Amino acid sequence: MSGDAARGEGFAPDAARGLRLVFVRGLEVRARLGVHPHEERAPQRVRIAIEAAVEDDAAPDGIGADRLARVVDYGRLAETARRAATEGHVRLAETLAERIALAVLAEQPRVRAVRVTVEKPDAVADAESVGVAVERQRRRQRP
User: Fold this and answer.
1) Strand pairing partners for 133?
2) Helix then strand then coil, % of the chain, to nearest 5
3) Which residues does 77 contact at the CB level (< 8 Å), separation at least 6?
4) Is the CB of residue 93 less than 8 Å from the CB of residue 33?
5) Is 120 a catalytic residue?
6) Which domain of life does this protein belong to (predicted)?
7) How far apart are CA 96 and CA 85, in angstroms?
8) Of the residues 120, 123, 131, 133, which is catalytic?
9) Between helices 93-107 and 74-86, what is the axis angle to 10°?
10) What is the CA radius of gyration of the chain?
11) Alpha-carbon distance 51 to 54, whole Å?
């Protein structure tokens, strides 16, 4: 992806490369996430963000057909994240973020790369939140 992603600034639309940005921000779920016994027993508030670099068939200078079939549905991205977060106990935020990222790539063939952030807003009393961001890319097909 771009240098922006490497610096933690997220993805950006890029008409020259035929990419648009599709995102879900601030998705809150109740999940059993963490290494402590109380985190395994009881769900806690978890905040998830997804940024996807998506193939834009109308780039660089067109307008595509106004049909859902040609884009990535952000509602489906949110459902993918909800499902991964609530399937059972996960010890590490890193593992959850990786699972979500790989599920997005598996379910959405137009997504070239995805960044997933998992935050635990209630984990550290004097911090707004703690968490992790991961990035995964679709492997390029060899000719």
Assistant:
1) 117
2) 30, 30, 40
3) 22, 24, 50, 52, 104, 108
4) yes
5) yes
6) Bacteria
7) 7
8) 120
9) 140
10) 16
11) 9
* CA dihedral over 51, 53, 57, 61, signed as positive or negative: positive
- Residue 143 domain-assigned (yes or no): no
User: What is the sign of the dihedral through the CA atoms of 91, 11, 73 and 103?
Assistant: negative
Length of the chain: 143
The string of pLDDT tens digits covering residues 31-82 is 999 999 988 899 999 999 999 999 999 999 999 999 998 999 999 999 999 9
Task: Look at residue 75 and tell me if it is in a domain.
Answer: yes
The predicted-structure confidence for 17-30, as pLDDT tens digits, reads as follows: 999 999 999 999 99
For residue 94, give the CATH number of its domain: 3.30.1130.10
Which amino acid, one-letter code, is at 8? G
> 3-state class of 84 per DSSP?
helix
